[in-house]
Amino acid sequence: MLRIDIHEARDGMALALPVQNPQVPSRTLLKAGFKLSDSIVRKLTDSGVKNIWVRYPALDFLDKFIDNSKLQAQQEVVTAITDTFEKLQTEAAAKLNYNTYLTNVAELVDSVISNPTSSLFLGDLTDSPDDLLRHSSATTYISLLLALKLEGYLVKERKHVNPARAKTVTNLGLGAMLHDIGLKELPEEVLAHYQETNEETDPEFQQHPLLGFRAVRGQIDPSAATIVLNHHQRYDGSGYAGKDIPILEGKNIHVFARLVAVAEQFDRLRNPQNMPQQPTVLALRAISQDPLASKFDPQILAALLDVVPPYAPGSVVKLSDNRHAVVIDHNTQTPCRPIVQIIPNPATIDPNDEDPPTGPQIDLAGQPNELYVAEAENHDVTQFNFPRPQSLTAQSSLASVW
Questions:
Q1: How many structural domains compose the chain?
Q2: How far apart are alpha carbons 250 and 110 in whole angstroms?
Q3: Residue 93 CA, distance from chain mean position
Q4: pTM of the prediction?
């Protein structure tokens, strides 16, 4: 299977995975196996679909990165977040079903643990035009991947609780789902200014963590509520949480809030307000190097490079020698030099060919520096490739679930 931009989809291609409706994420537009036509591709484009997974029989081994039970669990989380924001939008005193949300998160956690091979961030959980829904969904999933990767670190950082409880991450997922709920409490002009400028220095905008905390306090576990309050607190002491809320730094910030801080900042770098989506490799480079890197827990940043590949398996890239390739695996120690398999230019492939051609597999980590990923996600990424920072390579290897 291949993950392609909707603009690269062509008549005759067969879907490898279902396509969800960006406007109504709980609704499936097309099922796996459906063969596309030019008119359907146009309709998908008009509906806001950005990427699709299509069949490529020679690469069926990439199925290991996709787990149907996890896809279903992801969709339940997206639906839960949709339900939250819709209720807040329409009901002044909305009663949120937090127990249901915890169940949704627990099912997603179980699906990740049961199939660690598929536990990488391959792209947004939804193409919804609602930025808050898309952002909250991505932040939730990345936060859970980070936490499960850092199971031993959670136990170490939460010494005051039983080890079994310390590594339980359902409340982390709930807090990540709700981390920006305070944005719904801001005056329209304040939120509009942020959406237009991406600027966070407005004191009124900086009230949203406190406003969100007040909305959920006493209704969810304190470990989830602290995420809502402190997800903008920074490791170097440069963050904020709201008027008269003490500025925290380092290990004084709850580890759950530190995890969500990394996940949500990464997603904001990838998806800045009112701008085109940026390449994943650009966002990872920015957050893993100074001046941004010093603002986050280095242990968590190191894990981010393990669970979020700059070039995700299944994605089509173009190499510096002009050959096209599909990424087939992630090198964690050399994240921008993945393992790829050469394929023809996707524009020339016959979508009805049951035995499409493939070329050699290449581990870019073992190749001369002159051979690298040059284009990905419709961007020239030559200038964004980076070596894994030494400070993030030296982090201790703590026990994880995979």
A1: 3
A2: 30
A3: 31
A4: 0.94
